[in-house]
Fold:
Amino acid sequence: MGRLEGKRAIVTGAGSGIGRAAARLFAEEGATVLAVDLNADGVAETVEGRDRMTAEAGDVSSEEYVADSIRNFVDAHGGIDIVFANAGISGGWVPLSDQTPDYWEQILKVNLIGPFLYVKHASPHMVDQGAGSIICTASVAGIRANAGVHPYSASKAGVISLVQTVAYDLAGTGVRINAVCPGLIETGMTKPIFDMARGKGTEDRIGQINPLKRAGRPEEIANMALFLASDEASYVNGQAFPVDGGLSAS
Ligand code: NAD
Structure:
């Protein structure tokens, strides 16, 4: 019996990295999973040949898309038990003096407004059911300074605040909300960092600042998301959990 047997889940940013690992893990643990990503090919690859998984191309920053997608999912499956609002973009490294309001807006729309839209449109269904788990991907960058990525860090601090605040809206409903805060994980987002280091032969140095002396793997974040999604986390609510090898404690 899987840890998510019979549960119905939406995972965003599931065309790559952490979202792909989590969507596959949730399905392996018995959930019916809708895998969502802007990248249609990526998300199709995530579900290919797998049981209980469907792919959908969509933009998490579009309220029209998110509302329709959740409504269709609930109509098809009779409810929704889990949302992993994980899609995100880094925005790259741009000097402060070159940053524009458009640049900030682009990042906040995906990283912060995206999770807000999933909370807004999925939680009423969960409240009606009297149960549900929402997990949002924040970052260690939202807990402590990550030099040079101002809007990214601000968006992730915003996600933590969203989770803490919404926990009050959901008080007494049986619906839980938490955030996971990854450290440096090798994914599509961080590929340029790893590629550059490999090109210079300095890949051994990546992760040396970390107490575990290595970067993380997407599956290691997916495992935390699985725990938070499952009934094992029935008394875990309104929290933001670093999964970072100890980076934020060092
Ligand atoms: P990734 O680039 O491998 O995956 C992110 C996915 O989100 C991509 O497939 C992308 O197409 C999708 N996406 C981007 N914008 C979207 C949109 N508007 N609508 C739908 N999908 C969209 O990166 P990842 O590292 O797996 O990132 C997953 C989450 O983890 C992000 O929120 C990221 O900020 C967070 N995170 C990553 C790290 C890391 O080191 N990789 C560290 C901390 C937090």
Remarks:
- Strands lie at 8-12, 32-37, 53-57, 82-85, 132-137, 175-182, 240-243.
- The chain has one domain: 8-184+217-249.
